[in-house]
Amino acid sequence: MSELSGACGAGAATAAIFSGQFIRRLLQRCCHRYAGFSTERRRFAPVALDVLFDHFLIRHWQQFYATPYPQAKSELYLQLATAEPLMPEAMAVVMRKVRQQDWLAAYQQLEGVAMALDRIAQRIRFANRFSGAGQDIERHYPRLEQAFLSFYPELQAHVAELALEAKEA
To answer: Is 87 left (phi over 0), alpha (psi -120 to 50) or beta?
Structure first.
């Protein structure tokens, strides 16, 4: 969640770009290896995995962090509120909804993930068959969970590496 928020010091824009590219490559690798999404939904697999991986992070939080999840979530929501004036308006509106409607609480349950993905499908500005992605996720849930458990430590190592470089700069 907030792992990337403080990871970049000097050269933050460059580090953020490279970090984003790294994360996209990892997600793409997970999509190709583990996705199990139907043909009509495969194009949107990275979006679905992004939301699903939030679910898995919440589910396995204590495996990765000492801070209790409720405390970390409160801190993240506070960071989002503090950063809101720096965000483009459209992003600020969405982040305000994330906080006010407590989207992360919905992500704790698979049904909440499926509903979030269906709402995303409705907002896509062209005809698509992304709706119902929750069915693909449910069908391949154990395999996707294992993909997350392999992916997340790799992401943590990458973020830690960025933080070390930022301190040296």
So the answer is: beta
